[in-house]
Amino acid sequence: MVQVRYVAIGDSFTEGVGDEVEGVPRGWADLVAQGWADSRGEQVAYANLAIRGKLVQPIVVEQLERALALGPTHLSFNGGGNDMLRPRTPISRIADAFSHVRRRCQEEGVTLILLSGANPSAQLPLPALIQRRGDALSAAVEERIAGDDDIVTAFNWPDTELSDPSYWSADRLHMNTRGHHRVAARVLDALAEDVPEDWWSLSEPDRTVRLDRSRYFREHLGPWLKRRLTGTSSGDGREPKYAEWLPVDPR
């Protein structure tokens, strides 16, 4: 059996922000790598080039070819969440990135794992706008990949359970440990691998601090707006957490 060589590209969703272990983001992609090794009972090679705050075009330009150069068997891609929050960005331009990643994976013979992010709209300002643009992006991407049975899909946007606050961190934009486990369960299920039963709805206590309106604005929404106005990103100067292959052994 050929060893699984899995590389992930994307933004904070794929980097694992919100599911920190000893201060380091873990997240669904790390969990998938471990769950994959456990399910198969053999070592999986894993790399993660995702960096928080990235728009979809920089993900494609800065991460895709670097990931393909590693020689993966599988590549997971998600992007567009940060673009979607910019109302002037055309949905078609975001969907173009998905088409490009799809084409490059086909050319290189790499199995594409395509994800959509979870839906945070109920907890954020302008929920109707975010819902509408998220729905439009989901429809556009699904139209682009229609009929392609070689793509592994793990779409989280339609999962209403994931919109519950118990799956989200204090910033209301990134999932917490429970949320990342549910996404990882969906990916492993789409890969036809064994899924730890409790990952779908992790039973550990919800330790997320619920912030009142003023504190939420001061600690999270205000800094995000400042970055928008100054043209900076939370990922500026950051390097991928796993730029080369990391061996993941079954437990």
From TrEMBL:
Gene3D superfamilies: SGNH hydrolase
The SGNH hydrolase-type esterase domain, residue ranges: 8-181
InterPro entries per UniProt: GDSL_Rv0518-like, SGNH_hydro, SGNH_hydro_sf
A Pfam family assignment: Lipase_GDSL_2
Listed PANTHER family: GDSL-LIKE LIPASE/ACYLHYDROLASE, PUTATIVE (AFU_ORTHOLOGUE AFUA_2G00820)-RELATED, GDSL-LIKE LIPASE_ACYLHYDROLASE, PUTATIVE (AFU_ORTHOLOGUE AFUA_2G00820)-RELATED
Protein name, entry field: Lysophospholipase L1-like esterase
